[in-house]
Amino acid sequence: MHKLGAYLVLLTSFLYLSAGSPLATNALDQRATTFTNPPLWEDYPDLEVIRIGDAFYYTSSTFAFSPGAPILKSYDLVNWTPVTHSVPTLNFGTKYNLNSATDRGYVKGIWASSLRYRNSTDTFYWMGCVDGSKTYVWTASGTNALKNNGEVSSWNWKAAATLSKCYYDCGILVDDDDTMYVAYGSTKIMVAQLNKDGTAEVKSQQVYVTSDSAYIEGSRMYKINGYYYIFVTKPANEEWVLKSKSPWGPYEMKVLVASIAGPLTNAGYAHQGGIVDTRDGKWYYVAFLDSFPGGRIPVVAPITWTSDGWPQVVKVDNAWGKTYPMPVQTSKTVPAPVGTDSFQGTALSDEWEWNHNPDTSKFRLVGGAGGLLLQTATVTNDFFSARNTLTHRIIGPKSSGTFRLDISKMKDGDRAGAALFRDIAAYIGVQKEGTAVKLVMVNNLNLDANWATNTTGTVAAAGPTIDSGTTDLWLRVQADITPAFGTSTQRTTTFWYSTDGSKWSQLGPAFPMTNAWQFFTGYRFAVFNFATKALGGEVAVKGFTMAKL
Ligand SMILES: *[C@@H]1O[C@H](CO)[C@@H](O)[C@H](O)[C@H]1NC(C)=O
Ligand SMILES: *[C@@H]1O[C@H](CO)[C@@H](O)[C@H](O)[C@H]1NC(C)=O
């Protein structure tokens, strides 16, 4: 997480950043093809990357979206696809069910958390502090990952423990002798030793404190060549490395990066994240950039080690490279992030996350042309209190998200459509009044600074009359999440509809997005269906297509 003070420093300083610099490959393998940063232009912040055999796994924070803590998989550190979520249901209290207008979890929930694999028991551990008070442990055992070169035969996440202590911004380490440790805390960095199962604390102590009370957080813990390392961030500009012969310290500190330029213009500095090695022993640092309105996106750079065990980022013209050689040459691939989801199968793909825990009795995958059936789950006039809004990350820098809807079973008072989801939101959708169907573009859907609903929306434009029996209505959200962080430039989103899937009309004015970081999560595409009068209506989401523009 970030603290306001750090951001104010950042805002005044990085306005003068220049764009990424051309590549100098002389020190690197000329035969390799290159990749471009960011490898995946999507909002996957507070990351940790691990490797088992040929497979890399990447965990990320998700706040009040559910399921939480997705895991992305890659074979080359560049092409990533989500394969599971470590926290299938946010088991942190009623507010994570979008319980009421005053009992909601916006911006709370899963903050910087940790993922590790313990090979002695074939168990993945996810651990995170929620609401500053408790630490939740979820585990997946019997995955066969070690045996199968990193491939997981089935993810079987279980709530393993709740510790009545906050391991704030924690990073797990499984030591060579199988002892589990957790580094955590802010400014004062702590290390805890866990019990045999990794489900309770044996002891903990402070191992490092900044000399000038500088704010640091985001611990990642490693054991490499006999040294213990704790990587921490000084948000949102710097990454530090603490190094010691013992997990308990004393730790020496060196700065890994400080206000490093590149690779994108109008984005923040690469920081936080973690390091991982390839099978052939090369090391990489995967950090993230503040890239609002798009959220926080990963960037990858090689690291080298000094003879006395300090990592150094391989820079290009003294900046984070826009391109580097591919970390791994492999024929193994993962699915592309763009394309069409027609909601087949028995479960939603891991590209999807609900706004808070969904009411599982109000949606189902029906198969065939029916896709995803969304029944209204809440009677409200407040978009931000309506359950079962389904969200999808936006791929940058520009893309469209198109939902194909059957609206023929909506009921009087229902609202359904395609949203641009965040604390300052807008949508194109259908408002059913009696038997009439109004196609509208709505803006002024705003949360206030405390994440209470401030405004419940204004109809900014109305479209033509739509037949109430319409079984194919395409609604498109076209977003530009080119970073404009710390600038007054407002990127815009436009809303479109089609009744035949080929002829498109824009509805309403271009919507200016906020660049503010305080909501943490970047803008997302979303589909929703809620009632303002009574439950009973439904829409079928027959497909979703995300396309780069
Ligand atoms: C299992 O994990 C331990 C601790 O990280 C490590 O020392 C060991 O090399 C690993 N064994 C295998 C077979 O990967
Ligand atoms: C609430 O909305 C109004 C009107 O859009 C705006 O002027 C005000 O700043 C908002 N208040 C907060 C706390 O966000």
UniProtKB/TrEMBL annotation:
One of its GO terms (biological process) is carbohydrate metabolic process. The keyword Signal applies. Residues 341-542 form the Beta-xylosidase C-terminal Concanavalin A-like domain. Residues 1-20 form the signal peptide. GO terms for molecular function: hydrolase activity, hydrolyzing O-glycosyl compounds. It comes from the Eukaryota. Pfam families: GH43_C2 (PF17851), Glyco_hydro_43 (PF04616). Keywords: Glycosidase, Hydrolase, Signal. InterPro entries: ConA-like_dom_sf, GH43_C2, Glyco_hydro_43, Glyco_hydro_beta-prop_sf, Glycosyl_Hydrlase_43. Belongs to the glycosyl hydrolase 43 family. This is Glycoside hydrolase family 43 protein. The lineage of its organism: Eukaryota, Fungi, Dikarya, Ascomycota, Pezizomycotina.
